[in-house]
Structures are given as C-alpha cells and as structure tokens.
Write a structure and sequence with these properties.
mainly alpha, 226 residues
Amino acid sequence: MVNDQPPGQPKPPDMGEYYKQTSSADPLAGKSTEPTSQFDFMLKEPPKPKQGLSLPSGIAGKILVLGVALVVAVLLFVLFFGNKNTGSKQVIDLMAQSQEILRINQLENLQFQNSDTKNLSATTSVTLESQQADLAAYLKKVKVKVSSKELVLRFNKNTDTQLQTAAQNNNLDTAYLLYLKNALTSYQSSMKTVYDSTKSKTLRAALQSAFTSDATILKSSEFTQS
C-alpha cells in the first residue's frame, strides 16, 4: 500500500482509537449506562436488628435460672422471717432472765430475817410468772417454740454462792435485795431494747405492762432502806 502522506507531515490520529479513549472531562465519563430502578431498595437486604441480651439455652440456661430463683427466695426469706427470728431470740432471752430470778427466789436456803424481804420476793415471783406467760403467749402466736434449755441460758451459779456466803454472815437480806435490784434493772434495760426494736403491738403491750410492774417493785421501800 502506497503512503500518500507527504513526507514531514505528522500522521493524523486514528479516529477509531480516538473514540476508544474517554476524556476525564467527558460528562458521561465513569457513569453507568444501565437504567436505575426505583425498586432497587426492595432487592437490598434489610439491616439486621440489634440483638438484645439473651439467656443461654440448654443446661447452662436452666442452671442460671435456678440460681437466680434461689437467690430471690433467700432474700425473701430473710426479709419476711429474718427480723421475726431475731426478735424471737430477744424475747426468749427476756424469759431466760426472768427465769433466773425465779430460780433464785425458790432457793431453799433463802431464810430471810425480815418479813418484808420475804414478801417482796414472793411478789416478785408472782409478777415475773405472769410476765413469762405473756411472753410465752406471744411466741406461740408467732409459732416459735421455746425449749427448756433456752430458759436456763442465764443460769449463774455464782449468785447461789454469794447468797450462801451472805447467809452465813447473817447478811442475806441485804445481799438478796442488792441482787434483785441489779437483776430487775438489767431485765428492764433488755425489755426496753426489745420494745424499741419490735413493731408488734402485742409484744409492745406485754413489755410495757412488764416494765411498769417491775418499776413498781423497784420503788419498794425495801430497796431504799437497804
């Protein structure tokens, strides 16, 4: 094929190659020629919802549920019965204190020289026995049993020894009155503690009555003369 281009002239561009190259300035450059459908959103996968807290399945899940239920049960038990048990122990301790005073009053070697001391001892016993019955009735109402061992928890053998020594020294009345005064005062202090800590109207009424009765005994002339 003869080249008709004059020598020295640049070769004209190939038009085929020219249209194969797309200029970056071409407004259609880089754009897809495929039509956009308005229903493309239907073809896209919807976003996955965020997963919340889920309990493990199988045996592990059952163990976890049982554990939580057990903790809740223990908390409820402590809430409803814990205070009652604590209050009941305090009431039993009151009964043990009065029981110890009753035991001392029933000692065979209490041979008082003064009839007033003897009468005071008898009055104290009757009063404390009535209080014991009231406290026992309260415990029965709340379905708490009292054992004989619990009633002797305040037993103090030293008191027997001190009174025996006082009797040998002809000083029994004075020693007994001192013991009774201290015992009733301590008993009253314990009653006040229980009274302040309980919400039971029945128990409060019993304690109020007992406190008043014991206060009357402590105002007896025998204590002021001793």
